[in-house]
Amino acid sequence: MELLMSIVVGVFFMVGTYLIMTRSLIRVVVGINILSHSTHLLLLTMAGLKTGAPPLLNRGEEAFTDPLPQALILTAIVISFGVTAFTIVLAYRTYKVHRTDDLEQLRGIRNE
Amino acid sequence: MNSLLIVPIVLPAIIGAILVFFAKFQRMQRVISAVAMITILSASIWLAIAVYNEGIMTMNMGDWPIPYGIPLVADMFATVMLLLSAIVGVCCLFFAFRTIHPDREKFYFYPFYFFLLTGVNGSFLTGDLFNLFVFFEVMLIASYILIVHGGSGFQLRESFKYVTINVFSSMFFLAGVAYLYAATGTLNIADLGVRVAELDQEGVLNVVAVVLLFVFAMKGALFPLYFWLPDSYTGPPAAIAALFGGLLTKVGIYAIIRMFTVVFNHDPTFTHNLILFIAGATMFFGVLGAVAQYNFKRILSYHIISQVGYMVMGLGIFTPLALAGAIYYIVHHIIVKTALFLFAGISEKITGTNDLKQMGGLLKTHPTFSWMFFITAISLAGIPPLSGFFSKFPLILSGMQEERYLITAVALLVGLLTLFSMIKIFSFAFWGRQKHTEPQAKIKTGSLLLSTAPLVALTIILGLMAEPIFSYSLEIAEELLDPAVYIESVLEE
């Protein structure tokens, strides 16, 4: 299972990186989003997938799944929600002001 | 008493939240933020003194036992950084009162100012790698907003790049955290120090070290990851640019020094030589950028890059003397760089431009301002009685002692080129024919200079009292080079 997850993470990283390198603003935003999700999956996979019972004590179980990565991912997801919302608004404003969403045209002139 | 450790983090967060409600009341906002900022400054001073006298202070959040809970750790290095961030915070805030446009002021400038400080102070104090990530994000989200604050076309364009790059590196931070957790099973920095020592730092742990170095190098603008910095720091108004120039990159440097002294200190021939190479390249290419530019703020931005190289060079040589030099350099740099960015703001207010070719003759119309700038500029370049000299000297000396002649030569050359580009600013903007109009020449700068005066005074004091301050940074360096003290005081609580 870990192997499959690692491959999925790799594919997500690839897709995210590809989208970040495209010329359209909104694709870059989507790329950032996919990249952060792949990192969350990586965080989940690296700690080992389900290896025992849920981490509830006094129920006669011996082995427990590590709850820490899930707590970490929860925090990271909240942060990435915030950042995604911000980047979407930023991309929209940039489009409104510059009248283009083509990053090639947003390069700017040196020392303007 | 240890629970007072949390004041520099929680106070700005609460004040920021309160200020959101008073966004439209200009005077009230100013009063609240000034009082809060001075409280934070006094808390930082108290903390620095307490830690100096009583040793490392730790606090476990929610009383969870280590290594399950999240500790806050204040050692001498962290408290020095806290103190500097508070000083910079006060000066930039009072400068912002005078210069920031009322529209911006009413658009939640102060809340984000305080959220930024929350993130910065939190990253200095935390003792947990994931918590460091969270505080980094708090700081970065506030910085995204401050950098685009005002929403001019130039700002929007450059901040989109800034945001993309930083989100990208944050994702790598998280990936590094994931690898490290898989390899060691802990994220507490002190505990990591123990586990990495047990595991022998080679193979996968070196990979993790390089991933984290990459991330912090991106935030700290090291070679080859500095290209985002000059453009994004020229956009925002002077008060914000000064805060960023003084603080933000140094948080990355702080994290590098923390990680590579406490955790990844077992394979210095690989990691620290890599750091040394990066340091040399950063210094050299940064200063080349500065020499080529004719824009006031952009020259200063490129200087940030080259000077970050000096700090990392101290870490790369990895002796007490070199590390002490690096710490002295951080102190000197934060103060001087903030002052210079504020001066850039003043000259922009007078002449209405940042282009050096359209400036001139400020020395005749604004002598006090010009001489204050001159003192700070030669301090940056490293002329003896000021702090710049005493921060470079131990670095060069330890480079000689350790027989790292190449990096020493690069450091000396870069010092020369820094002097050259500061002289360029001075000769273009301050000497020569007056290019600004008569009404512009009559603009009063007294109240603005008042908020930069403490910084100028500090660089003189740092130079004249070099001996006690240097022995203080030597103590910090010895504390850093002996991570056992740090690890013990965190783990035994």
UniProtKB/TrEMBL annotation, chain A:
Cellular component terms per the entry's GO annotation: plasma membrane
Membrane topology label: Multi-pass membrane protein
Primary localisation category: membrane
Subcellular location: Cell membrane
Pfam families: Oxidored_q2
Key words of the record: Cell membrane, Membrane, Transmembrane, Transmembrane helix
Keyword Membrane listed: yes
Transmembrane segments: 6-21, 28-49, 69-92
The keyword Transmembrane helix is annotated on this UniProt entry: yes
Domain of life, source organism: Bacteria
Similarity field: Belongs to the CPA3 antiporters (TC 2.A.63) subunit C family.
Protein name: Na(+)/H(+) antiporter subunit C
Organism expressing this protein natively: Salicibibacter cibarius
Automatic annotation (TrEMBL), chain B:
Assigned keywords, A-Z: Antiport, Cell membrane, Membrane, Transmembrane, Transmembrane helix, Transport
Coiled coil residues, start to end: none
Domain NADH:quinone oxidoreductase/Mrp antiporter transmembrane residues, every copy: 127-416
GO cellular component terms attached to this protein's record: plasma membrane
Pfam families to which the protein is assigned, alphabetical: Proton_antipo_M (PF00361)
Membrane-topology descriptor: Multi-pass membrane protein
GO terms for MF: antiporter activity; NADH dehydrogenase (ubiquinone) activity
Subcellular location: Cell membrane; Membrane
Main location: membrane
Gene Ontology biological-process annotations: ATP synthesis coupled electron transport
Keyword Ribonucleoprotein: no
Segments passing through the bilayer: 6-25, 32-52, 72-95, 107-126, 132-151, 163-183, 203-229, 241-264, 270-292, 299-321, 327-347, 368-386, 406-426, 447-466
Family annotation (InterPro entries): CPA3_Na-H_Antiporter_D (IPR050586), NADH_UbQ_OxRdtase (IPR003918), ND/Mrp_TM (IPR001750)
Family: Belongs to the CPA3 antiporters (TC 2.A.63) subunit D family.
Name this polypeptide is given: Na+/H+ antiporter subunit D
Organism: Salicibibacter cibarius
